[in-house]
Amino acid sequence: MTMEFKEKDLDLQNIITDEVNKYLKRDLSTLPASRVASPELINKYEKMEVPEDGRDIYEILNELDSEILEYIHRGNHPRSFSFIPGPGSRLSWLGDILTTANNIHASNFKNANLPISIERNLINYFAGKLGWPIKPAGGVFVSGGSAANLTALVTARDEKIELKDLHKATVYISDQVHHSVTKAFHIAGFLKKNIRRVPVDEDFKMRVDELDKIITQDKKDGYTPVLVVATAGTTNTGAVDDLNKIADICESHDTWLHVDGAYGLSHLLSTKGRELFPGIERVDSVSWDAHKLLFQTYSCAMVIVKEKQHMLNSFSEEAEYLTDVQSDDDVIDPEMIGMELTRPARALKLWITLQVLGESQYRARIDYGQELAELTESVVSEMEHWHITSKASLSILSFKYVHPSLTAAQNNKVLSNAAQRMASSGYAVTYTTELNKEKVIRMCTINPETTKDDIIGTLNRLNEFVIDEVEIVRS
User: Fold this and answer.
1) Is 32 exposed, middle or buried (0-12, 13-18, 19+ CB in 10 A)?
2) Can you name the CATH fold of 105-343?
3) pLDDT per residue over 153-192, tens digit each?
4) What is the CA radius of gyration of the chain?
5) 3-class SS at 220?
6) Does an H or E element contain 413, and which?
7) Architecture in CATH for domain 13-35+72-88+357-475
8) Pairing of strands 438-444, 432-435
9) pTM above 0.90, yes or no
């Protein structure tokens, strides 16, 4: 005897088909790039109770379409230029639907042998792009750059120091490092007082001369330098640290070199490719987000290490109830080299996208993003009172407004207010960041559906908002 459940009475096949078709037909450029819900709507959903007998599904779908999914920041909008947007391919979306529908548990080879074979294949493919031998390199797909950085930092920690001596461990970052790295240090047990922030040069790259001095002094003071985190494509400016010189320093001090390439490393697939990252083949580990410039939906990222054995040393555990599903020695299961046991088959959607589009389409898309950034730089350079703060690099640039009759504080306020007005208008998202203690607009132009008219229209509107804010300040 089986129970009859309400779900079986729903016409889910047609409902799912209709919903998918509706989203496929959307023109995102006609929708607001960002929209914030009212306090009343927020209160409605925060206090909504779970009904005893359930509600009509079409009523729920109406709430999803008209409210819940309407008031969001649309990272895949062609005029979403902040936060390093995630312009997910519809092919990736297809992969999400298929892997979710099959509810794949991708922890070990026997649960999902072909999805995991594909994951191993892609890790090898991207390791090759880094210039690493397929063996002994290895890695695993994770949720995002935060998990990737944490996984790499734990691996480096366990390779370079005994846990009983962790209070002596020092680690090194620049002030342009992503905040997920400092969070990962905390989780991995590194003491906050032992985190060294290395200054950057005028191009916002880590100063390698200062790095060497700080490490040398730490060793004299009895510390154990464990890890340097360099960046290949900083969030603020797209800057790439001097990996060759940093690698020289790390080798001389027996220190692990991790590169946070969550955003930038996808440019390895561009026309310029490896020449953008000289020395990348010398690092010990990298983080790499596919849900940024590899055009995947959230979440899909990788951590890759030059020596897979190091990850195995940190994350492999015996579990009696897994004995029957553990793989043979020649296949290392994902759960043995990462934190997750329960995990989806994240690599499958990336594999679908790569197989359908091919390298040439990826190369064209990534190159186009850089072209848009260079166009933005060219247009801004001709705008009155606007100045480029960081040139177009890896499809990112920063610029600021400086009116000669206003103070620095007033110019900062003008720019912040203009950015808020832009987002509130729904036309585009161009939020500010801070460089050298000044407010700047930062734009990331990686969406292949962004047009040159989108760029020019956004800059013209931003300039209009700024001019209006200047008048408000001066009145």
Assistant:
1) buried
2) Aspartate Aminotransferase; domain 2 (3.40.640)
3) 999 999 999 999 999 999 999 999 988 999 999 999 999 9
4) 24
5) helix
6) helix 408-425
7) Alpha-Beta Complex (3.90)
8) antiparallel
9) yes
